[in-house]
Amino acid sequence: xxxxxxxxxxxxxxxxxxxxxxxxxCNKSWLIFNDSGDKELYIFQENGSLIxxxxxxxxxxxxxxxxxxxxxxxxxxxxSYMLHPSFxxxxxxxxxxxxxxxxxxxxxxxxxxxxxxxxxxxxxxYFENKxxxxxxxxxxxxxxxxxxxxxxxxxxxxxxxxxxxxxxEEEREEExxxxxxxxxxxxxxxxxxx
Length: 194
Prior knowledge:
- The protein has two domains: 4-117, Lipocalin (Beta Barrel), CATH 2.40.128.270; 119-194.
- β3 and β4 form a beta hairpin.
- An eight-stranded antiparallel beta barrel has the order 2-3-4-5-6-7-8-9.
- The protein has helices at 8-12, 21-25, 120-193, and strands at 4-5, 29-32, 40-44, 49-54, 57-66, 71-75, 80-88, 92-97, 102-108.
- By secondary structure, it is α+β, with helices and mostly antiparallel strands.
């Protein structure tokens, strides 16, 4: 298992503590990203055993999730690692090595047909594209919200203009009626004076 120094997962840090790490990990085959070209596969079992395979050579290990500090401890015969779930999407599960800025990247094997980075550059490009799409989506949401606000403001202005126009019409109608009443009264009075 090799850990890599990348800044991009720090920008995400989207792993929800509400997600069940055991459900995410168990009974799936996880390809461990490496740039050596070796096929490194981890299979986490619910009983805490871990089957690791590097190019078909199997090593049995153990794993344990410690909820007190949200960490995953993976123990091999000669060494153990403490990792913290950092980022999870439909393709990658990133684990940060405790006390470092280094990450282990796991890809669910059934996703490897769609995404199987062979180099750190490809992995970095994945995160950069994901970040770019996220920024574009936020900008699009802002544009839509702004357009909705502009539409509401326009409707409000049109409503206010229409209200003013109606008030003026009503005032004009009242003036006409007053004039008619005045002339009517004046005509009645003038007619009565004869």
